[in-house]
Amino acid sequence: MTDTLVIYYSYTGNSKKVALYAKDKLNADILELEPKIPFSDDYDKVVEEWQNNDIKRDVEIKEIDKDLSQYKKIVLITCTWWYGISPVMKKFLKDYDLSNKDIIVASSNAGWVGHCFRDYKMLLPNSNIKGELDLLFSANDGERDKMLTSLGEVDSWIEKL
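and the corresponding structure tokens:
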């Protein structure tokens, strides 16, 4: 067993790609967070429902199958939802204690990370956040899965853990 866990939520698959990369680089375990009721595949419906993504607004998530006390190092990766971390990641951080863990955080987006890193800090007051990564992906139609952040930047972020 490893002492490192990669935890992620990915709506489009972009955050998942980076989570799998980090898992392999760190020889870590991985945990995918999921909402109890999946979000619509229709992006416009998701926008209509979640464009006012407030830090206080919650979504129910599926129970996790990992004992978090077994891990000293945590990698958190989620997508940016209307300038904040995803509701799924917010709910996880509200419900589970990551105190006294070394943590690196990332938020994938197509142009502006907004207040994601403030959200992480607010929801992880007793954790040691060692690094932040703005995972920038293309905003161009047909290229939204193209990562603009270099693998070198991802590697440098991973090394902070």
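(Above: one complete record from the training split.) Residues 20 and 30 are 8 Å apart (CA to CA).
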